[in-house]
């Protein structure tokens, strides 16, 4: 079975901000500032409504019979539509089980809105049993099905008050966590032209999510202790074999943890 662990990074959709708030003529930074200010006024926080997010990175870890692979879709300068098309095309072709951290509450709804806006087709993802009966009782859309496993949702028992952050759960289990970069920095890093750094950060979130998933599979008896140890070593081998600096940093932080 193919298992795809994924994470997205987003920035304010300043073109949408210009339209809905009548901010034509302002530069991107000023439009985003106004969007955040409006959001704080209405909700008391800086986190924009999901339809106001634009996707700038989608990172994936694929565990298949061929092994383990971690990468970001497209290139650092790829258009948003290309990233979204690549994501849903992978689902269309391989029907992997999806694993995320807060994918139900953030990543997938954002991808829904952005795919809708871009006219991206995703028939397999939206299948609920009409064309394939195997999806009737196990599809990507039902909160309580296993074709998409939102670890944050499941581990909290679907209770909002019991939710924990990816960084805190990674720390609880002795995994590296955020490595000095957080989602709050993505917009500033994008303005500074550091989309490569954003993609690398997104990949480390995927690595943390995958490691938590492996521990979860051990807990629920889907992995033996021996298989779990083998899978951890597989991740470490992938990191050792990578020339990417964030992979080396992730491995150092992981192996340094007592």
Can you describe this structure?
The protein has 10 helices and 5 strands. The chain has helices at residues 14-21, 28-43, 80-94, 103-118, 151-155, 166-172, 186-191, 195-219, 225-240, 245-256; strands at 3-12, 53-64, 67-72, 97-100, 148-150. A 5-stranded mixed sheet has the order 3-2-1-4-5, with helices on both faces. The mean pLDDT is 96.
Which key features would you list for this structure?
258 residues; alpha/beta; Nucleotidyltransferase, domain 5; five-stranded mixed beta sheet; 49% helix; globular
- Measured as a percent range, the helix fraction is 40-55%
The CATH topology name reads Nucleotidyltransferase, domain 5
Record field, number of beta strands: 5
How much of the sequence lies in strands comes to: 5-15%
**Rg to the nearest angstrom?**
19 Å
- Main pleated-sheet profile: 5 strands, mixed
Outline, from the CA principal axes? Answer: globular
Number of domains: 1
Lay out the secondary structure:
Elements: E1 3-12, H1 14-21, H2 28-43, E2 53-64, E3 67-72, H3 80-94, E4 97-100, H4 103-118, E5 148-150, H5 151-155, H6 166-172, H7 186-191, H8 195-219, H9 225-240, H10 245-256
Parallel strand pairs: 1-4, 4-5
Antiparallel strand pairs: 1-2, 2-3
Helix pairs in contact: 1-2, 3-4, 6-8, 8-9
